[in-house]
Specification:
The complex is a heterodimer of chains A (about 240) and B (about 525). Chain A has about 240 residues and is α/β, with parallel strands linked by helices. Chain A has ten helices and ten strands. By secondary structure, chain B is α/β, with parallel strands linked by helices.
Amino acid sequence: MQGRIIIFGSQRFGRAVAEQLAAAQSEVVLVGQDAVDLATARESRLTVCQADYTDDAELERLGIGRDVGQVFCLLPEDAQNVFLSLSVRALAPQVHIVALAEAPDAVAKLKAAGADDIIEPYEMIGQTVCRLVQKPLINDLLDTLLFGDADLLLAEVAVTADSALDQSTLLELNLRDHYNLVALGVANHTRGETLLFAADAQDYRLLPGDVLLVMGADSAITRFRRAVAVRRARKD
Amino acid sequence: MNPASVVKLCYFLDRSKNYGRIKRICHDLLENPQAPVRPYVDTVMITLILTTVLLFIYDVRHPLPDWARHVEYIAVGVFIIEYLLRLWLYSDSRRIIIADYEKADYLGVPFRLGPALGAALRKKWDYATTPLAIIDLLSLLPAYRPLRILRLFMLFRVFRLFRYAHSVNEFTRVLAEKRFELYTLGVFVSFVVFASATAIYLFEADHSESRIETFFDAVYWALVTLSTVGYGDIVPHTPEGRLITAVLIVSGIGVLSFFTSIIVSAFAEKMQTLRERRIQQELARLDELIVVCGYGRVGEVIVAQLVAQGRALLVLDKVPARVERARRQGFHAVCEDAGRSGLWESLGIQQRVETVLCVTGDDVINVFATLTARSLNPQVKIISRANRDETVKKLKLAGANYVVRPFDAVARVAVGSVHEPLAFAAIHAVLSGDSGLTLDAIRIGDGTYLDGQRLARLDLRQHKLVLFGVIAPRAGERHLHWERFDLATARFYFNPPDDFVLHGGDSLVLFGRPVSLRYFQEQLEQSALRGR
């Protein structure tokens, strides 16, 4: 994602996201109205700013509409997040907005207000706990692999017109044997959000604009990317 | 009666397995509330009681056929046997005599049979004087037809049903709890009745038209008026009588309200306890119970999902409004402090509870509940929520198996959506089940068609599944596969090659539609039954 990242909401969610993003070397500004919360955030070495989210002029001063690429609406109330999404979308039609939804019916409202991605924290926790109850092995696995320090990654490999992936099928690519990767599926923003599952898409021909989702070791992914970057002479 | 032979008999009975077994069987039939045969025995007894009562009622105005008399004799026979059995089951006389004998033996004094027998018989007398036993005994009397007054004892036959009706027991217990108030009321009513009966008798009894002839009539009238029934068979004719009537009516209303308020308040207090007891009775039939502490937003989501998967659960919360909401949505819920050990024991944490979820928004409560549950059952699975990072370690120390950090999880997803949005959206969709795809670990049972086979044997394309990897027990070097990750209790081999050998006890981590996963699992399990 290009551009600066702004997080609205200086309470727990906002601070947690800001800390993780800052740790990943992104340029993050945490915006809030409560002086105490902002002081706590400043202690964690975060860049903070005190501003009123309801004032469009202040939003513009923060850079929305100019050089901000990503906005997080993590305010405590759903109504506040909806208001903020609307304001930001009106000022900056291209920015990527991620919003927090507490009640399930806020999801539709936030989407209508212009949010791109919705995070439902309570749903997620509920599902994690249910997974722990029903399938503890899977949870263990995911925690260790995806969310821990292990080498396994989930990666997106974009298909462009000049890559070797164009016009290939998953069957031909045989990621498993050649690159030691597991293909999960194919996604395409323009076709919609749904993921085309790999087991159903063995014969699907990849087109430019598709994104292949693979999982595997970091080194294997890099090798794969390099291998398909340019059309191989053999294919022609 | 030779004391030595009596003692020998008692020892013989105590040691005899058959005697013990017979007594246990009878106990199950009559006294054990949890024996599976009890409902049938109870139904038979209730039917018998009701039949004899109905026949008796019918007999009042119509002649009964002969077989009806036989029914009565059989019923009375059954009741006599039941009475004697209950008397026998109430206490173990042989143990009393043995204990007495051993005490005498230990102290070195001669054993005297008299006092020992006396103690045993006194125990039996204790049973005979309990209300239910008296009812049982008295209900046997109506069988003796010649005495008309004994018809009254037929009522006791109906009272026998008290034994079988729990709600009646509750009602009597409620009354018993309020006996001081009821006693006060009783005294007051007696006084009012006596005073007004006397007054009305003095003024009305000698009046020519008055229906009051004896003092008993006056008392009868006073009660009928006081209770606001007013049959109208006895009415006052003199002006003084009417005045007394007016006073009695007004005080009658007061007495009635007093009585009603006592009963209502007693029941209101009892309702809570009754409901909890009913919940516990229902819970007693459940197994693999999941207890959810905290019915806030997280709790609601968890409960909804677990219920959708058919799990039995119980909600625990300190806030009454939340408990009400849970009840309204049809879940078992108890309004109690999750830190109370007595509560956990009554919920059956040692036997029935499989998992405990401490998911309130307050870390202090979560830690306390975790500790309490763990101290009572070292085996139960406890999953707790940590709202602050520092609480994670405390929860682990308190005994939680897993700790969930909501804010952390959210932040990770938020961050993931920045750097690799599609990938994270995909994982998120999979984990939430929204996309129709799911990740599951399917265990390879011993003797199934994959046990001992190479991975190549697994036809993923046909099952429409994607293999992520294999989870195998830690012990033993399975394969020199470098993509090996150590989990808490097992080892995960990512994307193993075709010559990887699978064993019973391994789990395949598969990715696919729930229907494909279920079908694959069924096929796998059936192959064990078919013998490959």
